[in-house]
Amino acid sequence: MMPSLRWSGRKPFVRGLSSLRGVVLGGLSAFLLAACVGVEAVESPVPAYNVHYSCNISTINAALQQNDLPNLDSQPGVVLVNKYQNVSDNIGVCGLLLYHAATEDVFYAYDLACPYCYRRGAVSAIGMKDPFVARCPGCESEFGAVQYGSPAPTAGPANAENYHLRQYRARLTTYTTLVVTRK
Fold first, then answer.
1. Bigger pLDDT: 20 or 97?
2. What is the C-alpha to C-alpha distance for residues 111 and 120, in angstroms, rounded to an integer?
3. 170 pLDDT higher than 90
4. What global pTM score does this model have?
């Protein structure tokens, strides 16, 4: 007796490609999942204080006597808030770095505490190396993407350890009033 052959509707070669495609897609999915599992949001070692600060972007540079930096109402604009102006001000661990982006009308706010120094038990306030790069005088870590809204380090030991600046929310509430709060 002869075994009966059934027609499955697929040619054996096509069925082979279908299973090969499943293996390739399954392997690619597993690879992408494994790659994404290791990616975590980077949290700054600087604690997230309850920050609340408001200022007039047209006059803040003069009020803090920082005329060597570009005015906050210009693009790019920078100001380092390292002292209280009002009793109700909460300016983080070491103060605030306020930045007006160079390419768009967006504001960014960061804590002045260097995350590398803070993690090591020291408190060092970052300053501006130039209008585009924030730099810690203690460990010489640099943060060169603050104008793009990135708190990531670009050089120095903070870069080696991947310690980011603490970032806060900055928004205009009126035409000239900038308000900074905790994210």
1. 97
2. 17
3. yes
4. 0.74
